[in-house]
Amino acid sequence: MLAERDYAAWAKRTGLSQLAQAAIAHIRNCEPTRRVGGGRANVTGRYPSRKMGVTIQFESHRVELPAIIELEHDETVLEYFDQAPAIKLDYRSADGRQLSVLHTPDFFVIRADSAGWEECKTKVELQRLAERSPNRYRRDDDRRWVCPPGQRHAQDLGLYYRVRSSADIDWVFQRNIQFLDDYLRAASNVPTLQKQQVLARVAAQPGCSLGDLFRSTESHVTRDTIYSLIAAGEIFVDLHSASLAEPERVKVWLDRPPRPPISSAPVRPASRTALRRPAFNSGFCWRARPTWRRPPAASISCRRLCVENRQTRSRPERFAGGSLTIEWHMSSTATATSDCCPNRILETRAASFRRRAGY
Fold this sequence. Notes:
The protein has 3 domains: about 5-170, Trna Endonuclease, Chain: A, domain 1; about 175-255, no CATH class; about 280-355, no CATH class. It is α+β, with helices and mostly antiparallel strands. It has helices spanning about 5-15, 20-30, 65-70, 125-130, 150-155, 170-180, 180-185, 190-205, 210-215, 225-230, 270-275, 350-355, and strands at about 45-50, 55-60, 75-80, 85-90, 100-105, 105-110, 115-120, 140, 145, 160-165, 210, 235, 250-255, 285-295, 295-305, 310-320, 325-330, 345.
């Protein structure tokens, strides 16, 4: 939890109004407004938060508990409070009646550069609520769930209101945090020599797999020691990318690896031929070479190439306005597979040519 001096510095840095600061101070100094209760489908409980120094209530192990774990281990989250004082939401019901309800969000979160309320719902519950109260819950243009009356209330104070959906939960991260839970709560007491041996190995081969690190140090360092170093942040593992239960897929670094630079070169649009390349279900790679001709009157020849004997058959079809010839060439690097039938005949119809040529 923030000390009063740190909180005052945060409030000054974010530039919040006096009204917003008073609302946040009230939330920070009061107890949870209600005790959560469970239902037939929910598992309630209390999470012992090291960040807050208190237990945090949750009434859903499927949405609220994962949200608590994420808030607990998010470095940008400074404080978070469960069951903050109720706020007033004004909106119209589905039949047009004006409603004003008192709503108790699940959490109030103070982040490094913002603060606001966060409400947790399952995907199914949000869909049901959106049908019943479309003016309270709906999807925005980015297909994210929002609560417009909650957003209006928060924006008046310069804060935010967020709806957390169960569909947004990163379950790989959740499983990894549960895997490391004992190491995260225990004090790191790794011997200096073992720590240096692990760090030297990772420095010599940055980005090595966790499995390789286990094998290269198994004679003098235990796996518990390596997990303790991961939990203490001495070596970096992206807990969002792969499960620790699959060490061959987990990459290990001394520090967070830099992201690859984003190229500023313009993306070249696909060529006309590439956009119109037909997809054949075969083991061959085909390249189209179109040739256009526009005499006063001509005929179009549909050529069918037999893959087996390379014979060419023509079936002329006449139409007014011009002609088009397209030849299909097999790439020399392509090889036939068992899935490719050697007797397959590739036929391009004149009607398709006319449509593509714009006649």
